[in-house]
Amino acid sequence: MQYHFKIHKDVNMFWAECIELPGCFTQADNRKELLINMQEALSLYIEEDVDSKDLAPLPKKIKSAKNIVKVSLEPQVAFAFLVRYWRFKYGLTQRQAARKMGFEKIYSYQRLETRRCNPSLKTISMIKKVYPEFSLDLAITI
User: Fold this and answer.
1) Which domains can be identified in the chain, with CATH numbers?
2) Is the CB of residue 112 less than 8 Å from the CB of residue 77?
3) Are 87 and 131 in contact (CB under 8 A)?
4) pTM of the predicted model, to two decimals?
5) Which tens digits make up the pLDDT trace of 122-133?
């Protein structure tokens, strides 16, 4: 999953803002450091607290430009975000989603919404049945 950052250069520093995520900014002394900081800022922005009702938008298709770069979200973060994103879009609680996927315990579902998850193909198949729009390709795009 890739978001777009617009890079700005001031006299002594670089700074960048994520086009799709209002309030997602970072800065650095050089461009190399800025690229690292953009990925960290993106991950921190997307990894919402479990109890949060906020939901970041999906990335947009944006035309390439000299000062716009694509920044990849870590696949584990992207996967967890997409599971949460589609649960919110379907208006389900974690308990309801767990039941629909056939999990006996809610904890098994909750792990899917954290970067600690390592889902099996069976679990990915259950996710696709409950959330047909879920895109594994989007989660692992780098």
Assistant:
1) 2-72 (3.30.160.250), 75-140 (1.10.260.40)
2) no
3) yes
4) 0.88
5) 999 999 999 999
